[in-house]
Amino acid sequence: MxxxxxxxxxxxxxxAAAITARDAGASVVMIERATVGGTCVNTGCxxxxxxxxxxxxRHSAASQPFPGIVTQAGPVDMAALAAAxxxxxxxxxxxxxxxxxxxxxxxxxxxRPGSPAARxxxxxxxxxxxxxxxxxxxxxLGLPVMAGRDGRISSADPYxxxxxxxxxxxxxxxxxxxxxxVVVGRATDCGTGCGSFEAMxxxxxxxxxxxxxxxxxxxxxxxxxxxxxxxxxxxxGRLNFxxxxxxxxxxxxx
Length: 254
Prior knowledge:
Blueprint (H helix, E strand, L loop, with lengths): L4 E4 L3 H12 L4 E4 L6 H5 L2 H19 L14 H26 L19 E4 L5 E2 L3 H11 L3 E6 L6 E7 L2 E5 L4 E7 L8 H4 L5 E3 L2 H10 L3 E6 L1 H12 L1 H4 L8
Parallel strand pairs: 1-2
Antiparallel strand pairs: 3-4, 3-5, 5-6, 6-7, 8-9, 8-10
Helix pairs in contact: 3-4, 3-8, 5-8
């Protein structure tokens, strides 16, 4: 059988490409050799957002500001939390596949989906390797850790276009401008048919300052979002990507 478009892999960009192609009337086959969903669902966006949500829940319980209300937060069972994170991620891949099949029902004969290169606002170069584009800011921060190399991330503030650059050399991270932060957001109004990459990745972004982040969030009222400082954002990237290629990542950074 012949197809107009063959997509190799199964990441977030693959689903977007397949749906767009089908909407244009093209026939599409998607090919995946391993786990459906790609980096975003299995080791990137979804697991990182699950950990961030869990951390936010514990932080709220430990430091809620309202008088007359008593809350507490006990120690974290990381083994149980990690197991739950894995379970949630495994559910997302098949769910995204079912969404794509529903969207293209009667118009294609789906194989298994993919992740073609797609340019985003987050360009990352590690050492002398070819530059790649990350789906979200947390993914971008994890790439140099995963590769075990110095790296540079180039991005732009979505509020006003201000350039944002993050550099890591010999384990030391530097940010320009020095006030830069990361917004981790999830769309709450995109409906049940919205894939994880659509709900999370476009809203997990670099900002030049907390003020810009707050202004941008004020324009996007349908987001469940949190502003991360630089150290917290780097740690999120390290936790998600650090051990993928080189074993357990270091427990600290400059």
